Predict the 3D structure of the following.
Amino acid sequence: MLAVPLAVAVGLGVSRISAEWSNANRLGSASENVSIVPSVLDLSTATSATAGSQVIALAPGRSMVTEDNLAALDQSIAAAESALTELDDLPAARQALSEMIDQAKGVRAQGTAPTNLPPAEAVEVLDKARNAGVRAVEAILGEVGDASIDPAKLRLVDALNLRSTMVGEITAAAELLRNQESGEQAYRTATNTERALLNILSQRYNAEDPDIAILRQGIDNRAGMLETPEAQAGRLPLGEARQSLLDSTGTTDKLIAEATSSIDDGVRKMADKALSDAVVYSIVVLLTILAALLLAVFVARSMIVPLHRLRLAALRVAESDLPDEVAQLRTGASPEEVPLEPMPIRSEEEIGQLARAIDDIHGQALRLASDQAQMRSQVNDMFETLARRSKSLVDHQLSLIEAMEYDEKDPRLLENLFRLDHLAARMRRNGDNLLILAGTKQRRAKSAPVEIADVLRAAISEVEDYERVKLGATPRGALIEPAASDMAHLFAELLDNALRASPPETDVKFTFAQAHDQGLLIEVADRGIGMPPSEMAEINRRLESTAEPGPDTARHMGLFVVGRLAERHGLNVRLRPTFDTARDPGVTVTVHVPMSLIVAGETQILPLATGSGPQAVIPNDAAKKKPEQSPDEAAAAALRNAPGGPSMQTRGISRTAAGNMMVTVDPGMSGPL
């Protein structure tokens, strides 16, 4: 917006400055050329005076030309030749001056001898010299077209014409000596012409000008010489006439010099004024452009600085403030407790109005986030209420099934009851799904650490095809609560996904390694259909970030649960391809358990039935209650009343391939990743 008008202003200013300097240079050159006019006029005067004197023969072979006339002519020719080189830029003036020099040299070659030309031809030679001088002067002065010097130019031209007629009187006097009648006629014509030109010249001056009066008196005297008896007798006083002509020529030369000086002074003043105007105009234009640039910078700064501050503030709101404020609202803060920092622009113009609009958008976003947080809180409350009611009903159902298991003797019916118990336990995990989805932490009673092997067996007992899971040798140590129960949930989800994504005839294996921070790496590897790299990278990204409910939560409930449980205890869960086989490589999930969750050495460990998850020590009164029960059944009954409480709830009892009973505990939720 500012560059275009500034560029136009600079262009116009430079153009005007260039024009001013060009005019100043033109007038300076014209001033130098005008200084040549005196040389041209001197040459014209000397040539006319010498040529006119050569017409009158005082004696045979001798004219009225004196050595002073010849010396003045030589000096004028030299000055004109020197000035000729300075008229290269005025071809017309140079050509006219060259003709004058050639004519002057021809007159100089005649010397003091009288010319043999008739008076008429002599007048023609003088007219040529006069015309060449007038052309040279007009060409020089034509370069200056200013009204202030036009009067001086007119006076100069009229004075030159007047002087040329004075020279014509000399030739007329010479003719009078040859032929009385024709000479007298030519003399009267010359004086009348001189009087007419003087009348024209007098209009350029005041009526009382003394020089005009002297010229008029000289004409009257020379005209009166024809009325004297001597002139009537053919004896015209040539000496007196010549002296009168010389006096009038001197007066005319004075007028010519004054006009020339006036022209020269006027042109010089014009050149100096043009130069000073060019300098002043250049300074003014440059200062104006500089002021415009400063104003443009000021205006641009007044716009750019607030825009820059507004941009930084808007980016800070979008990238930092608004997410933090939304996070505070999600954690339960009220809108009044979240301060809204306004944009740091307080002006009333468009940028300030834009800042206020951004503040309004910020406030609307916070109000929307508050409404969304309230809605999510209400939904979470509904989920928690439904989950706890469902869990209460499932717990009551499990109590009834357990009572039936104590009283049942038929192995077939007992196995069905065990299956029903297992299904009810998995239903109870759906309630846990809702609790985790609602962001509610389960209330667990404090309990002793649980052995790592028992946690993994509890996770195995949660899946349907537990026979396909190969545990192998497990590391020693225990996990603190409640991390042990949540990790049983986590591994149950991973195992369930691995079993679903691999063929029925393949196995799922546990492997273990020590991490660089003395923690534990537990891997679950399957040989299933695998996963595209892009999808695996997306899942790893979700596992690294905070697990938040979204549109894909229902489709990837296991991923959400694993992410929430890993975040809760600082676990690191990563997926990678299984590299131990070329065919059906499958997926390997690596879980990093930090050292802070592992307890080494002698710990109070819940005893474990064969092939089952963690169990509690069987109290004596529980064993005495049903003496007809097997030891595994008594252990299952004791586990239901174990001090771990709801942290390790019994899910059901099933039989292994060897006929041993498996006690299933409550490690978490099921469902595919």
In short: The CA atoms of residues 400 and 421 lie 10 Å apart. The chain is about 65% helix and 5% strand. The longest helix spans residues 238-330.
